[in-house]
Amino acid sequence: MASVISAGTTSGTSLNLTGDTSGQLQLQTNGTTPALTIDTSQNVGIGTTSPSYKLDVSTGTNTYLRAISTTTADAGWYFTNSNRSWITFVNGSDGAYR
Predict the structure, then answer these.
(1) In angstroms, rounded to a whole number, what is the distance separating the alpha carbons of residues 60 and 44?
(2) Each residue of 30-69: pLDDT tens digit?
(3) Global pTM?
(4) How many CB atoms are closer than 10 A to CB 81?
(5) Helices assigned H by DSSP within 1-98
């Protein structure tokens, strides 16, 4: 579970706060639908409740945009859908695109 801030669609559910001790925070829309999750590693998930990267965006099955890092010097973006995948890295020491 996570500590939750939720916005509902009626006056009785317009804004609710639910706390727990997991260290995670979720923003929910329509009272029960998680829209954004921040986990204990400060990974941010949009469309996913278990982000694996600093920014982990899921728009459905096998469709992602992720901010990834393979070392402390390299960082990049990983894009995928059901048909294709792309990875773009920028090397921190020389600024080269991969």
Answers:
(1) 16
(2) 767 888 999 999 999 998 899 988 888 888 766 777 777 6
(3) 0.70
(4) 14
(5) none
